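ENTRY TYPE: paired fold submission
RECORD: A
CONTENT: sequence, then structure tokens
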Amino acid sequence: MTSLAGKRVVVTGGSGFLGQHVVRALEGRGSTVLVPRKRHYDLTSEPQVERMFADMRPQVVIHLAAVVGGIGANRESPGRFFYENVMLGALTMEHARRNGVEKFVGVGTICAYPKHAHVPFVEADLWNGYPEDTNAPYGIAKKMLLVQGQAYRQQYGFNAIHVLPVNLYGPHDNFDPASSHVIPALIRKCVEAAERGDREVVCWGTGNATREFLYVGDCADAIVSATERYEDAEPVNIGAGFEISIRDLAHLIAELTGFRGALTFDATKPDGQPRRMLDVSRAQERFGFRASTDFHAGLARTIEWYRAHREQPA
């Protein structure tokens, strides 16, 4: 058990989508939370990583910083997604070890699983094949964080754990059409189409692929609970334990946003991985995590947040 009360906790990526929620959850535990901003510390540069640890002197590190995006962004920048994610993880963990950090929490990705993994995905299947091609460089780069943590635990006795969140959604998500994931992309499309009175919204892919989605606040609670209570070398899935097809998701978002036109699916665009759903029993058994946010309610909250915070057209 790792008590977080009074601890100095660095959250890399703490100003991002998930990071903001993790910071709030840590503050609720009485932690002193420190967030290295990219403009001050480039964590792909070793001298700047060294400086960050000297300045912040963390006792616990939760590593969320990543270069992320949807299928389109992954296809456009696979080299950048691989290199920057590898360097972010490798340097941050190495200097956490050198500086005597008590616990390091690596946050991976469901994209690390093999393309045709048996559903639901079980942690033991993580190495049973190559990831889906469109996001393999990103998924493998994040998987290196798991390998590094296990190697450091074996050689140095370094307390590193690794969690694997499923696709997230919620307030503060990225709604930029060039890089957003499926839920914010569909929310934006449907809201704008409803306002313009469009007759049609075009969705990427066949609509047949399935995904599991976890509300971002639930994920933050899971990460903080794992930081407190999970001590094992093996990775642990963080999810909601259900799947929905992209077609059904699109229809649900259309309904919740008030879009009454037709939804069409562009099969020339990639579906990505055919199915995604996690076995979440390890998280339930080891640190008592179970997702609590109803999917419809979480989507409605996300739509409400987007409408309140989006940039209005000039």
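RECORD: B
CONTENT: sequence, then structure tokens
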Amino acid sequence: MAPATRFCATYWLCFLATLAWLAPRSARADVTGAARAFAEGQAAQLEGKYALAAERFELAFTLQPSKEALRSAVRMQMSAENFARAATDAQTLLDRFGDDAQSAELAQSILDQVTPQLVRYEVSCAPACTLLVDHLVYFLEAARRHRLYLNPGRIALEAQFASGRAASRSLSARSGETARIAFKEPAAPAVAPVPTAPNALARSQHEPERAAQSPSRGVPRVVPWITGAATVACGAATLWAALDTRRQHGEYVEHPTDERWNDGVARQKMTNALLASTAVLAATTITLTFFVREPDKKALGVSPAISPTSASLDLSGRF
């Protein structure tokens, strides 16, 4: 038990030290990437490419939330006549920066102008979820509440949860209506019970006898070592994924593209999943060390036999 405990403690110290080394660089990279995306948005705005400018301003807001980037995104979406997205960004601006007079005035004026021809959707998630509209990511950041505006007609909404499970709903609404949808994380699929064969039932009747003959309980010593090895392998994969995510993030900062952004998001999700798996394996290993089966004690029996013509000594035991 002691070697396994020492191993787990050493692993987590190294892992936390690696995260501490990576975190400040990632934060600085987000600020740099946001500044670059904002500058690209300004350049696209001067060229009259309003849709592209809006995308770059939204990217800058995603990397480093600021009211200036979101206000610029709202204006460019209006110039590109993407009224639904403009209203959604305006609602976000009002929710996040409603205490700023300039932001609140801009957001409210746009909402008053375009919402009569749109459908307002209020989506709640339990727990927090990311939201897809017609199978395309609409809100990448997980939250328990999403507010958005879409064009009237039939749409498909899908909520994705951190567990990997998803819930979806298809609905239709008309202009000026407000639709409220609540998503709950689906339960894990039930495992069908294995039917008991007659011979298995007969064997189960003799289990108490075998249990009496084998008083040793617990898990074999090799089990914690197996889970410990799995923890090491999963931890190594987690570290590799974190370093690779950092590398791709650096490439995106140097040459930002939508493809690199989507790849980076996928890598980050994979890193989070590996980190959770490593934590579960480490906790399992530590727990199993407390339930290791003690080795059976050796038993030795001596049976002497004496007859008029011979003598013998029989040894029997359990090892």
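NOTES ON RECORD B: The chain has three domains: 1-29+221-293, 48-115, 118-187. The radius of gyration is 31 Å.
STATUS: closed
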